[in-house]
């Protein structure tokens, strides 16, 4: 229940619907009991057991309530029907129908209002989860599988929605139905009702014993669902590689093993859950059977209870069975939902290590330069950067080169604050980036990566991601600077062409030029290029490199380069080895040193 208390905060905006649901559930429970009690006068008239009462009875106190109610009903029937018994029968049948009509009307109204609350909570929990998913740092998703996160925002949230309804029934509707029914049962026969109370706790203990392990079993099912969704997500993302390496069967076996575990866990969970209904029903019928024997003895032998009251009493006793079964089902739903709520809240309550400081400043201009001062950083145990220092003056182009694993891309991740440094600091115009609002820091920077990350949308919207409410002219101008306008206009619908999932309808060079156009439109003073041309063929590289040079004019640029031919004009080239600076200088200065940089240039020349 502790997790549901936390989920309940999402119900606060919809509290009016909750109160209306409770109100109509109270009325439903009351009329549910009264509708069965109204069977007594009907049966009395039907079996000619009703007494003729010609004078209105007088209420003398709570002890005489039962007799007063019976006499009052008989008085009304007598007054309406006179000597015509059929008139009296029509009256009491009409009373029963009216009470059942009200009962079902209040049932509908209770369900009507709970719908808004349930779906509102579902919407708000999903919105909060999505907000948290995009807010959490990149590092979070190197530990969590994407499929598991997808399972939490879909099936787990849906499970909470169903369980949420169950809890409201558990707290309000069904207990009140039982309470009002028992009050009426006491009213009919105290002795018989006390007898019933001996058996109900016994049935409850047996049903409770069945459900104890449900939360654990439900948790296993939901985790396994996250696992096979991860396999699906990875399969779709890497389908070309899977086919190229004939690994279809291997992935199928992985997926099959996961769904087999899901099948086994689900069977165990559902069979345990399904046991509740037949067990509850049998125990209920057992209670009814014992009641028939004990009550029948009161009617036939002791004659302390009349037959019509006993029949209505049996109806009331059966009226307890349905809500009792619902409570047992709801308690299972709560256990399942608790496991789902735990998984959802694990995401919602995850602390974001990269967050704005309370007094974070908004920085809207870039005046002097970037500085990395004695920066040390590690992803896990080993340092990727150690005591790394670098100065990037405004308007300059600084290139980072070196072998894979030397820490080049890590610097891009630290500058954009996808990760925070472990030691040292990164400063913009002398201000530590940790004391700048993340949103304003990233407004100052544009990023073009090796992998062109595009979205399943139109060309216009992919470029327009760089600037909200960008005009048509601004988008076209950005595309021209990125050497993309020509190929865009040749597409079937031009700028309104949908480029497919991850932009897969375009070539590598076209995708990269769209990424550059997006960065150009944003027009940031600092540009970070992370191996932006390394995955391209020679012709595409020429077009992209030309676009990059146009984009970097009058901007401060940090270029992480794989192909050294693209950074010969850099103001400063930093050669990195194992997280440290091995050499630095201009292209000509480094060649003259006859060191690491010259070896890299010669190796690439041989490959070319």
Figure out the total of helices.
22
CATH domain class name of the largest domain: Mainly Alpha
Outline type: elongated
Outline the low-pLDDT stretches: none
CATH architectural designation of the largest domain: Up-down Bundle
Rg, Cα atoms, Å = 37 Å
Measure the end-to-end span: 65 Å
Note the main sheet.
Answer: 6 strands, mixed
CATH superfamily of the largest domain: ABC transporter type 1, transmembrane domain
The CATH topology of the largest domain is given as ABC transporter transmembrane region fold
Mean pLDDT: 79
Number of strands: 10
- What class, by secondary structure content? alpha/beta
β-sheet strand percentage: 5-15%
Oligomer: single chain
How are the strands ordered across the major sheet?
6-7-8-3-9-10
> What is the count of structural domains?
2
Helix content: 55-70%
Summarize the structure.
The chain has 608 residues and is an alpha/beta fold.
Explain this structure to me?
- With 608 residues, the protein is an alpha/beta fold.
- It has 2 domains: 2-348, ABC transporter transmembrane region fold (Up-down Bundle); 369-607, 3-Layer(aba) Sandwich (Rossmann fold), CATH 3.40.50.300.
- Helices cover 63% and strands 10% of the residues.
- The strands form 2 sheets. A 6-stranded mixed β-sheet has the order 6-7-8-3-9-10, sandwiched between helices. It has a 4-stranded antiparallel β-sheet with strand order 2-1-4-5, covered by helices on one side.
- This is ATP-binding cassette, subfamily B, MsbA.
- Residues 370-603 form the ABC transporter domain.
- Residues 22-336 form the ABC transmembrane type-1 domain.
């Amino acid at each position: 229940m502790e997790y549901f208390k936390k989920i309940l905060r999402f119900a606060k905006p919809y509290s009016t619907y909750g109160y209306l649901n409770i109100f109509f559930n109270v009325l439903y429970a009351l009329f549910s009991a009264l509708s069965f009690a109204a069977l007594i006068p009907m049966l009395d008239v039907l079996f000619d057991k009703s007494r003729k009462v010609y004078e209105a009875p007088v209420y003398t106190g709570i002890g005489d309530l039962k007799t007063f109610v019976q006499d009052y009903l008989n008085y009304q029937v007598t007054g309406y029907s006179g000597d015509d018994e059929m008139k009296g029968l029509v009256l009491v049948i009409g009373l029963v129908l009216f009470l059942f009509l009200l009962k079902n009307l209040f049932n509908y109204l209770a369900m009507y209002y709970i719908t808004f609350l349930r779906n509102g909570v579902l919407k708000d929990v999903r919105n909060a989860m999505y907000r948290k998913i995009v807010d959490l740092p990149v590092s979070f998703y190197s530990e969590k599988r994407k499929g598991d996160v997808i399972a939490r925002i879909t099936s787990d949230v849906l499970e909470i929605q169903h369980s949420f309804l169950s809890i409201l029934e558990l707290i309000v509707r069904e207990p009140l139905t039982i309470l009002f029914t028992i009050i009426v049962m006491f009213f009919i026969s105290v002795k018989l009702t006390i007898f019933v109370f001996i058996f109900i706790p016994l049935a409850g203990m047996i049903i409770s014993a069945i459900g104890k392990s449900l939360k654990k079993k439900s948790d296993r099912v939901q985790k396994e669902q996250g696992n096979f969704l991860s396999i699906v997500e990875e399969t779709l993302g890497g389908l070309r590689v899977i086919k190229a390496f004939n690994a279809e069967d291997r992935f199928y076996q992985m997926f099959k093993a996961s769904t087999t575990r899901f099948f086994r866990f689900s069977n165990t969970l559902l069979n345990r859950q399904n046991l509740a209904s037949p067990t509850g029903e049998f125990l209920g019928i057992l209670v009814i059977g014992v009641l028939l024997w004990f009550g029948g003895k009161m009617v036939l032998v002791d004659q302390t209870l009349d037959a019509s009251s006993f029949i209505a009493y049996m109806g009331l006793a059966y009226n307890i069975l349905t809500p009792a079964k619902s409570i047992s089902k709801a308690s299972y739903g709560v256990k399942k939902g608790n496991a789902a709520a735990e998984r959802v809240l694990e995401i919602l309550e995850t602390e974001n290590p990269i967050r704005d400081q309370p007094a974070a400043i908004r920085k809207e201009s870039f005046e002097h330069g970037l500085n990395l001062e004695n920066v040390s950083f590690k992803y896990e145990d080993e340092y990727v950067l150690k005591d790394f220092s670098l100065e990037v003056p405004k308007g300059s182009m600084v290139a980072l080169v070196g072998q894979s694993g030397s820490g080049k891309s890590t610097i891009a991740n630290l500058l954009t604050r996808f990760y925070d440094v472990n030691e040292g600091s990164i400063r913009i115009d002398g201000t530590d980036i940790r004391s700048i609002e993340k949103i304003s820091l990233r407004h100052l920077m544009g990023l073009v990566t090796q992998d062109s990350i595009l979205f399943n949308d139109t060309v216009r919207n992919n470029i327009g991601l760089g600037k909200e409410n960008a005009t048509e002219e601004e988008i076209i101008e950005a595309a021209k600077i990125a050497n993309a306008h020509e190929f865009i206009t040749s597409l079937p619908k031009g700028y309104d062409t949908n480029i497919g999932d991850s932009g897969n309808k375009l070539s590598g060079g076209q995708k990269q030029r769209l990424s550059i156009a997006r960065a150009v439109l944003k027009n940031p003073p600092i540009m970070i290029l992370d191996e932006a041309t390394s995955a391209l063929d020679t012709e595409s590289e020429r077009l992209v490199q030309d676009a990059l040079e146009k984009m970097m004019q009058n901007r401060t640029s940090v270029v992480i380069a794989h192909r050294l031919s693209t950074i010969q004009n850099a103001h400063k080239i930093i050669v990195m080895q194992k997280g440290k600076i091995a050499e630095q200088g201009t292209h000509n200065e480094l060649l003259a040193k006859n060191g690491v940089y010259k070896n890299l240039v010669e190796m690439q020349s041989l490959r070319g």
